[in-house]
Amino acid sequence: MKQEQVMKGRGLVKGIAEGEALVSTESLVWSHGVDPESGKVDDIRVSICGQCVKDKILIYPLGKGSTSGATWMLETVRCGNGPKAIVNVETEMIIVAGAVLSEKIYGRNIPVVDRTDINPVEAIETGDLVRVNGEKGTVEILKRRKEK
Amino acid sequence: MKLTDTEKRMLDGAQGEAKQMALEILMQIGEALEADSFVEVSSVQAMAHFGSLHIAGRDWLEKLACLGGKCCVPTTQDPASIPFKCWKEMGYDEEYAKNQYRLSEAILKLGEMPKWSCTPYYQGTIPRVGQNIAWAESSAVSFANSVLGARTNRTPAGLAVLAALTGRMPKYGLYLAENRIAQIKINIEAGELSDLDYNTIGIITGKIAGAKIPALYGIPSSVTNDNLKYLGASAASSGSVALYHADGVTPEAILTDVFAGKRPEEEFVITRKDINDEAEKMTSQGAGEAELAVVGCPHYSSEEVIKLAELAEGKKVSDGKAFWVFTTAETESLMERMGIKAKLEEAGIRIMAQTCLVISPLVGGYKNLITDSGKFASYLPSEHNIKIRYARTKECVEAVMK
Fold it and tell me: Which pLDDT belongs to residue A147?
């Protein structure tokens, strides 16, 4: 494994998750931006609109948006459509709150990592196999979707 | 995190399971955000509307209530997702309404005050300069931070209730003076400003600032609280501005050097042309003749309802059209005592108390709306798949009344 494929950042929510990456180049807003019942992104301003976040390692620039985003994320988890982990360039408290509540209420651990030394939105492509370690704050590309 | 003896007792569970769980969660979040301690908060603005909380949020509040959770600081909440008095006659879904009523019961058990408003600062919750509070609702957060000089982050829904149960929030972000320093400077050079202009300036400010803290220059000291309410709400909807400073107007701008001796990262100018161009863009492309006028986002103040009644004097809402005013139960009651509510009803204007169109279904099948609010104009087209016309209150009256 090449060195640059391990990114080091800030582990905000602990836990380890491995899965397929879903990368959005635009910031994702959970409230009115993700449909909890289908797990699909339904904000037409986002490039991954129509794709399902379920069991994905969800990667996007800013964890921002309305203060009601935490309960939208929680509802998505309740419906069984939560992501496996979230990686942001910069995360707001709304995402941390959503992840912490998901674990507390539904026992679903969603590690959250941000501020990695390499921009994850540029380094990772949708379909890559990725491991997120919330304890160490690392994001690792295990396998590229397409061999380069 | 460093804990006080009181906080340690909360964690022990001696003060009940709800409080213990609440503080545990807040501690976990505090540690993630590298907060070294908690701040004590003096009031909480929470959320209990079904439109955003869904089943998960409903179950969460019911669970906390069931565990014996009780608010230990004054706690209010955002508007509900149905108009309690008239949802049935207006055709709101019964199942949806039932869920809202379950949330209503839960917050009463928790000891929240059911004001159901996005303007708690007009309903008796008035934090002082420098006071720590935990408010959700982006427009109220902006008003509290900017206009009142109180300190709050954009508290997430589902978490605000935990601040209510414990009176605590992790000390980070805007609770710290060093994070309240202005980053960019915006000069407003547009001559005299109308009520609608303040909405538009807010929209432009949000687009320029994103999540940064702007310092605005050129707002006259004669600006009203309602003008600032719209400015903040609009800036929080087009960007995520949680705090702005306005030279000679807002407390921190009067009491301190908002740049703390530093130079602004960037400087911008908003001209009359910028305001007019932006206002034009806020009307949806292809917007048809308005069938429904909606005002009161954030909730109309009593002064605004009185002004609306004056504008509507001698007019009636046209057949097939409607006019809804979103406001508080407190203002509705005052309007009743002043005889204004009867006048509005006679003119066909409906008072929608304690609810809001941003977080509730749109009934009636309307496709073309008109509003005097920048926040409504930002959210309603995508939220309800409608076209919006953005105009002054007077034009809203003229569009649906004769």
Answer: 64
